[in-house]
């Protein structure tokens, strides 16, 4: 089969990557050590990192705290096969039997197409089941199965313990204040 002629100008990003690049001008001769020293003066060495600007940002502090907690969470939830989003979904189903996927999406800020796959995965694992919604024929309520209830009982006890472990330097009042302040930002 004969090859079709290539267009003069690439039409898309993928074609642009494959198009020949224009010739470059030759680079100047490399600088000698003495000319490099005179062109660029050495800056001062940093002995102590100044992160004061970053540490004054809410987002930076929230992210650093979240990374600390999530690291421990991933380690301790690995035996249950739960990621943070999985735990959040199953916890809401635990405490709200009959919740719909739409309600879960709204509560957790998850896009519906992503929720569909996660709910199906929980069903395949035998952790949840769908039941007809009592007032909306188009919706289905989500309920934990017996294995799902057992798993979440253990997982929530583990989550409670890990929260205590990562926040051990905060008093009970400080923990309550911190959660209240964080919720003022996102609720």
What can you see in these coordinates?
Helices cover 57% and strands 5% of the residues. Strands 1-2 form a two-stranded antiparallel sheet. Strand 1 and strand 2 form a beta hairpin. The protein has helices spanning 13-18, 33-39, 52-55, 58-77, 84-95, 101-108, 112-124, 146-166, 172-186, and strands at 128-132, 140-144. It starts with 12 loop residues before the first helix and ends with a helix. It has a domain at 83-160: Orthogonal Bundle (Arc Repressor Mutant, subunit A). The model is unreliable at 1-23 (pLDDT under 50). It is elongated and about 70 Å long. The protein is mainly α.
CATH class of one domain: Mainly Alpha
Low-confidence stretches: 1-23
Second rung of CATH, namely the architecture of one domain: Orthogonal Bundle
Give the terminus-to-terminus CA distance.
62 Å
> Which of globular, elongated, flat, extended, rod-shaped describes the shape?
elongated
Count of alpha/pi helices: 9
Strand content: 5-15%
* Structural Rg: 28 Å
**Percentage of residues in helical conformation:** 55-70%
- SSE series: HHHHHHHEEHH
Mean pLDDT: 85
Oligomer status: single chain
